[in-house]
Amino acid sequence: MPRVAVGQENGSDIEIYYEDNGTGEPVVLIHGYPLSGHSWEKQQRVLLAAGHRVITYDRRGFGRSSHPTIGYDYDTFAADLGTLLDELGLDSVVLVGFSMGTGEVTRYIGTYGTARVKKAALLGAIPPFLLKRDDNPEGVDGAVFEGIQKAIVADRFAYLKDFLDNFYNTDVLAGTRISDQAWQASFNVAADASAHATYACVGAWLTDFREDLPKFDVPTLVVHGDADRILPFEATAARLPGLIKDLRFVKVEGGPHNIAWTHPEQVNEALLAFLAE
Fold first, then answer.
1. Does the active-site annotation cover 257?
2. Could you say which of 20, 62, 74, 100 has the lowest number of CB atoms within 10 Å?
3. One of 36, 66, 99, 186 is an active-site residue; which one?
4. pLDDT one digit per residue (tens) for the chain, 277 residues
5. Of the residues 31, 52, 224, 257, which is catalytic?
6. SS3 letters across the chain
7. Which fold has domain 3-276?
């Protein structure tokens, strides 16, 4: 299995697992919490058919990557992404992030610029800044995230069940846009992730990306469901048109958080059109 070392913990390598398929313009797909690179299957298929080289990888702590107890912050996540781009020698790459993955895209561009980046896409965006403060009244109260961490400590599996129900809006979409089997597959991946990473990543969600966003100087696509219960539309994506210069914006009516799975026809159409520009 292809891996790249991105650091060490107690003398052992921390490795990122990746898959690299196809030829043509490279597209890097960066998954959401608490899943893995395999969650992109409905996009990978159409991107490969359209002639793109598709790279997916598992964030540290998730999927087949190492499960360390360090590095769960966006500076480190962006450095991990940069190491992968270096390892594969990728240039003129399109970075596509979903959920937590949009933070990697944003912090990577904010830190390293766009010398290697041709375009960017943010699906179910976490920027600009989730935490409610005096200078960020549109954010979410910090007590919400404290409650999430307490729930993970109390019973990680019960928390994941509730999280994934809201990830897919199962009370509305179960049996139509999300099957019981697909939900269970997500639960299995989430349950197999590092318990430490599952907890530690909650703190990373509160990263302030407002200084990163003005550094986007490449065409950028945002796709977000207006029924997103994980990253509410008004607190996240709705704020981005005034913060990113060259922006294409697609709102998915009735879309939950994981629109890449529940609404692939709209997501894939928008993504393919954006890549073809």
1. yes
2. 20
3. 99
4. 799 999 999 999 999 999 999 999 999 999 999 999 999 999 999 999 999 999 999 999 999 999 999 999 999 999 999 999 999 999 999 999 999 999 999 999 999 999 999 999 999 999 999 999 999 999 999 999 999 999 999 999 999 999 999 999 999 999 999 999 999 999 999 999 999 999 999 999 999 999 999 999 999 999 999 999 999 999 999 999 999 999 999 999 999 999 999 999 999 999 999 999 9
5. 257
6. CCEEEEEEECCEEEEEEEEEECCCCEEEEECCCCCCHHHHHHHHHHHHHCCCEEEEECCCCCCCCCCCCCCCCHHHHHHHHHHHHHHHCCCCEEEEEECHHHHHHHHHHHHHCCCCEEEEEEECCCCCCCECECCECCCECHHHHHHHHHHHHHCHHHHHHHHHHHHHCHHHHECCCECHHHHHHHHHHHHHCCHHHHHHHHHHCCCCCCCCHHHCCCCEEEEEECCCCCCCHHHCHHHHHHCCCCEEEEEECCCCCCHHHHCHHHHHHHHHHHHHC
7. Rossmann fold (3.40.50)
